[in-house]
Amino acid sequence: MSDSVNSVSSPASVAGPLAVPPVAQAGDSLAEVATPSLLLDLDAFDANVAHMAGAASARGVAVRPHAKAHKSVTIARAQIAAGAVGVCCQKLTEAIPFVNAGIGSVHISNEFVGHTRVALAVAMAARVSLSVCVDDVRQVAPLGKAAQRAGVRIAVLPEVDVGQGRCGVDSTDALGRLVDAIDHYEGLRFGGLQAYHGSAQHIANWDERRDTARRAADQASAYVRFLAARGIACPVVTGGGTGTAEFDIESGVYTEIQPGSYVFLDGHYGSLEWRDDWRFRHALFLASTVMSTARAGIIVCDAGLKSVATDSGLPRFWSSQQAGQPQYRTASDEHGVLALASPDEDGADWLGEPILLVPGHCDPTVNLYDRYVAVRHGRVEGVWPIEARGLSQ
């Protein structure tokens, strides 16, 4: 008995540690990609980047894409190559990979407080053109003093509430106090206004979304007129996003827009009403494999809650609008259950089949992964790191 035990255990002692196999390599077919994996369809991605860049350029509006959607230096570089002026980030640490990669213009489109964050902002400002947001005079002084000590200059954009009801001042008096506070420090300069209405991005009805975006632009315009009456030029009005970009570009108010999800078109944005040629293409997919067909009427794939965010709904089986395709119904940690057309249907033929899912919300789904598998015409073209994954401080 003792010899038998030793003979079983001894191979592990000499084999050494196991290496995690690569998710994919250039030239692989889709069937060879390890699952679950995040796939980026490069043809659709290229078309989406070109679409937004061209529409904004035609109206003289700058595009500063939101890197919180993709968290990838490679994607940011592709957007800048198409004409983007830089990137937005929501958190300071999220911006670090982009700063280190030489992305020259970074906007932190969110407020921050605390000595550590102020010190990080100042360190960034020594390397790139940095702009940040404030909505309270108490945020201004620590930043101004630190910037002055370090000999850097930071553009500061007061955030104005244009309907979101979250961050941002909601009166001209409060805006005036912020501008005065910024002007007090040599290390700071008034950079314009942050005027973002996040909820407007997600209104399904096209007419309602347009009307909400117009009201937001009108409120932003009123703040610009207030500043002009005080003799203060407003060089930038930045905001907007994927859902309202078509309206913000035409508003005559926004000088810069901050769309993020347009590069991917997740399930939620894909469910909105779009008109003319403004619908983007689905470019982001979750590659999964059917791993169990033990029960009639369902198939089970290997993509569950640890693989896809469900805050904006469950993922959608690609081409599920076609009759007879399975519907993703429930998710647990490591399992995704898809219902077949009939509860009596035998799904045995699905076992081992690769499937594609469209995530409901791209941003938190991307944050679950270390890399994109970039594919074109069914073949892996490259594996792109997601450098800012998990950087949320």
Automatic annotation (TrEMBL):
A Gene Ontology molecular function term of the record: D-serine ammonia-lyase activity
Native organism: Pandoraea morbifera
Protein name: Alanine racemase
Sequence ranges assigned to domain D-serine dehydratase-like in this UniProt record: 283-376
Gene3D superfamilies documented for this protein: Alanine racemase, D-serine dehydratase-like domain
GO biological process per UniProt: D-serine catabolic process
Keyword Lyase on entry: yes
Database matches in Pfam families: Ala_racemase_N, D-ser_dehydrat
Keyword terms, alphabetized: Lyase
Family, similarity comment: Belongs to the DSD1 family.
